[in-house]
Amino acid sequence: CEVCVKVMDDVKASMKKEDVKKKPKVEEAMGAYCARKDLGPREKKICYYIDPIKRDVAQPFSTGMSADRVCKRLNKTNEAICGVKFPVKTDNLEPQDFSKLRVKQLKAILAQRGVECKGCVEKDEFIQKVKDTEHLAHMEL
Hints:
This protein is mainly alpha-helical. It has helices spanning 2-14, 23-34, 41-50, 54-62, 67-77, 103-113, 123-132, 134-140. The chain has 2 domains: 2-77; 95-140. Helix 1 (2-14) crosses helix 3 (41-50), helix 1 (2-14) packs across helix 5 (67-77) and helix 6 (103-113) packs parallel to helix 7. Residues 1-87 form the ARMET N-terminal domain.
């Protein structure tokens, strides 16, 4: 729920401390945050999900619940909220870190490098291909 937590923290940071306990002010702050033009695509997607349920978000938010807990509670009603994630940073990964990534993330790394892994089925094959194409990642910088 990393994107949801970031959005909730940003909304909380944009509010005055005394207004955090008032539901209408929380809803207003969410509307103002989501109306901003400088939001990234993932933040916009979270706004798309929470805009219709502002009241349900404002209730636990105004009681002082942490952003992580609010997002986990929202995830029970709409599972797409925690499905939104930031992209994997591949700049300074150590070689042993690749084994901790999921296959989907390994495929994304290969796609960023413009490489396809034809015939790759096992995770180990994807990891090996990522290691083999590591020189391509350094050339982009």
